[in-house]
User: What shape does this take?
Amino acid sequence: MHKLTTYLKVVSRSRDHQRLFLNVNEIMRLQKTLSRKLPPQLAKRCCIGSCSNGALVIKTSNSAVAAKLKQMVPSLLKEFENQIQSIRIAVDTHDYKNQNDETKISKKTALSSVGIQALQQFEISLAHSPLKSAIHSLLSQYPINDRAKNR
Assistant: This one.
């Protein structure tokens, strides 16, 4: 890590990269200010998207967060003082997709052996169809020793 820090310090001083590092530092500063101003539950669902010519873009995870942020725009403008003249709220679920997928995975409920057996019997009774394929796919997620042997 020490080598990386040293490298970044050297690169940040080079003429070719100074503008990039200034922009990154500005966005980090704005993000810290935004995180301090917002309630914690709201702050973790949004981030600074960009800032140029006094226009700040805040990206959010969903439209409910965007609606709440829009209500807070006047106080946010005061917080950012004279540096920011306008704030635009953009819903960008792409950045938050992995976070949401992890939450869904951790909340996955298991099927009991009785449930697995009932689904297996139902699958056997069905003709070839998309429903049968879907049930087969669902059952394939469970270990064979949890499923009934008569398929």
Notes: Residues 46 and 60 are 4 Å apart (CA to CA). The chain has two domains: 2-95, 108-146.
